[in-house]
Amino acid sequence: AHSELRYKRVVLKLSGESLAHSGERGISMEEVGDISAQIKQATQSGCQVAVVIGGGNILRGAQFSGRSSLINESTAHYMGMLATVMNSLSLQDALEQIGCPTRVMSSIRMDGVCETFVRRRAIRHMEKGRVIILAAGIGRPFVTTDTAAAQRALELEADVVLKATRVDGVYSEDPEKNPHALLYDRLSFKDVIERNLRVMDATAIAMCREHSLPILVFNFKKDGNIVRAVSGENIGTRIEE
Ligand code: UDP
Q1: Per UniProt, where does ATP bind (predicted)?
Q2: Theoretical Cys-Cys bridge with 105: which of 61, 117, 203, 207, CB 3.0 to 4.6 Å?
Q3: Distance between CA atoms of residues 141 and 155, nearest Å
Q4: Pocket probe mutation, ligand 1, options 81, 108, 220, max atoms within 8 Å of Cβ
């Protein structure tokens, strides 16, 4: 472990489920509070933080629609994007309550609720020490917030995508099914694609690979890990080149 600041700007991808109690849906105040405290601590080193939050704790488009559904698949994806806005608003208030200035910026214009994402304004907020929470994914259906995290990280010229998960990193197999699964320390994008490893969705992986943007997959459930990830400590699985 070292304390030198490695990253100037990061995109932190949190799944919607990170705001719910394990195995439950919805938004848990306890989890929102925990994550906010960690995010605040992470910004205190001077690193600029943009959070991309999912909506899976409320609704995922692909699961919500289907052959028998009354709801069109695109509609379901838009509903998923709206779920991310609710998550973002809870995180915003929880962060501000502990004295961490925050702005929610949505990819879908929502006057009266939050700002709209404008690249240069987003950068300005971060330069002023505000955490930005990027809501509504990329604002288009049929992708997930993993893709949004990769896309925004490129646009904001972040140094890394920090993908927060419930396990310690990327494994050779599902560690929740096979306790002997191997945890990787480092992987190349080629490895991830060839071995079909579950890291982020395929579009996100392709974007990061194409632009040599590293991804760190780490366990946010271990207290202090968000701060460790942001400060470039050697945790989780690092994917690059
Ligand atoms: N979504 C979308 N476009 C985007 C981002 C998200 O259509 O740019 C929809 C999609 O249906 C997705 C849902 O919003 O399933 C919630 O996001 P996600 O599944 O990424 O949430 P997470 O798994 O991270 O909680």
Answers
A1: 13-16, 56, 60, 165, 171, 174
A2: 117
A3: 19
A4: 81
The pLDDT tens digits for 12-48 are 999 999 999 988 999 999 999 999 999 999 999 899 9
Residue 212 within a domain: yes
The 10s digit of each residue's pLDDT in 140-177 is 999 999 999 999 999 999 999 999 999 999 999 888 89
Give me the interface pTM, i.e. the ipTM: 0.99
Nearest CA among 232, 69, 47 for reference residue 132: 47
DSSP type of residue 16: G
User: Which candidate, 124, 93, 87, 129, places its Cα nearest to that of 106?
Assistant: 87
- CATH code of the domain in which 177 resides: 3.40.1160.10
Q: Domain range holding 38?
A: 9-239
H/E element holding 96? helix 73-97
Distance 140 CA to ligand 1 centre (A): 10
Number of domains observed in the structure of the chain? 1
Instruction: Output the pTM of the full model.
Output: 0.95
